[in-house]
């Protein structure tokens, strides 16, 4: 028997980094998915095969085999150490080093749920890694949804366990990523306003864990100042939520709300700049957007990855 689970990627519209510290964020799922297929077998060992979309939209394959006991057991501290050692032995190339933590998260979850039952897991993803489109969250959610199907006794809270996997990958994750990937749509929001967003992948890699730690360190050094910034970001998130849930009755109302959202995006980007998570690659995106009187901001942890550009429902430029 083979079990398949699918989870979507996501984008954060407002509230990046503030959400780590308990503030409000607005996020939405996107129509790109990660699919996990799981099959148990009698052969010894556990295999994970990863099929990833790269920057040229081509597929690459990583196949890892781990020779482990077939006797089911719970995941202990010693098991975690063994998992880390196994992954370290794979000698990931520098360009793929970010996958190591993802493999650790997989093996931790696998052994926690299925013990050391032999099996093969195939992961196929349409989401580019490290691009702020929720690739790790979709991966964790799909794994958490697929694995319990072979467990006789464990009832798994998919969102909760996906968050625990995210901790292994990112250290102190946003938390909103796995929730949106689990529940879909705009989690917790009844959106009544159609939105058009252009997502630009800068193809600049970044370390989400390091960026989150950087903001936390700055908050420790300047608690009052950072709290003011985070409060301002939360105010933007709440206004975003109010606007997109409003019942617009005509094109004029839609246009007025679009202008408010555009201004909020500009303000949000300025605040993210102040906490040190933007990147030089944004200048090209910003300048291009400004030519068309559009607003852009980073999404996710920043430092590269993807940027959002707010585009009007009724474009004002034929060249857009």
Distance between the termini: 49 Å
Helix content, binned percent: 40-55%
In the CATH hierarchy, the third-tier topology of the largest domain is known as: Ribosomal Protein S5, domain 2
Structural class: alpha+beta
Q: Which CATH architecture of the largest domain is right? A: 2-Layer Sandwich
Q: Could you name the CATH class of the largest domain?
A: Alpha Beta
Subcellular location: Cytoplasm
Protein name: Mevalonate kinase
Family: Belongs to the GHMP kinase family. Mevalonate kinase subfamily.
Pfam families: GHMP_kinases_C, GHMP_kinases_N
Gist of the model:
It is an enzyme of class 2 (transferase). This protein has 320 residues and is an alpha+beta fold.
Could you characterize the architecture of this molecule?
With 320 residues, the chain is α+β, with helices and mostly antiparallel strands. It folds into two domains: 2-183, 2-Layer Sandwich (Ribosomal Protein S5, domain 2), CATH 3.30.230.10; 196-311, Alpha-Beta Plaits, CATH 3.30.70.890. It has nine helices and eight strands. The protein has helices at residues 77-88, 99-114, 135-146, 158-170, 176-183, 208-221, 223-244, 251-274, 282-291; strands at residues 2-14, 26-40, 46-53, 59-66, 119-125, 196-201, 295-298, 306-311. The strands form two sheets. A five-stranded mixed beta sheet has the order 1-2-5-3-4. It has a three-stranded antiparallel beta sheet with strand order 6-8-7. Helix 1 (77-88) packs antiparallel against helix 2 (99-114), helix 2 (99-114) packs parallel to helix 3 and helix 6 (208-221) packs across helix 7 (223-244). The longest helix has 24 residues, at 251-274. It is globular and about 65 Å long. One of its GO terms (cellular component) is cytosol. InterPro entries: GHMP_kinase_C_dom, GHMP_kinase_C_sf, GHMP_kinase_N_dom, Mev_gal_kin, Ribosomal_Su5_D2-typ_SF, Ribsml_uS5_D2-typ_fold_subgr. It is found in: Cytoplasm.
